[in-house]
Write a structure and sequence with these properties.
The protein is built from three helices and two strands, in the order αααββ. The chain has one domain. The longest helix has 21 residues. It is an alpha+beta fold and 96 residues long. Interacts with RIP1.
Length: 96
């Protein structure tokens, strides 16, 4: 496995951990999906352009996981919802 592929794989795993750190079932499912996706492509013979396209796709998914995931939890005792996001620099607006 090339160092670029390994770096992309590890980047996806880190991004999934950041996005789903408090949601263990979703984290496990995301990690399984990442592992399966890379295993399916393990023996593929790709041109340099195809490899670059797939690595760009994986890195784009990492960015989406880090920036666009907002998770919510209902706190029934306090009668409110709690939300957490993986990127503190992004503002989230909720409309009820």
């Amino acid at each position: 496995m090339s160092s670029r592929v390994l770096a992309s794989y590890r980047n996806l795993l880190r991004a999934s951990r950041v996005a789903f750190n408090k949601d263990l079932p979703t984290l496990a499912a995301a990690r399984m999906q990442i592992q399966q996706g890379f295993k399916n492509e393990k023996d593929a013979t790709l041109t340099e352009a195809e490899l670059n396209e797939r690595l760009t796709y994986a890195n784009d998914i990492s960015t989406i996981l880090r920036r666009n995931i907002v998770q919510g939890a209902r706190d029934d005792e306090a009668q409110h919802d709690r939300y957490s996001k993986s990127d503190p620099t992004i503002t989230v607006h909720f409309i009820r």
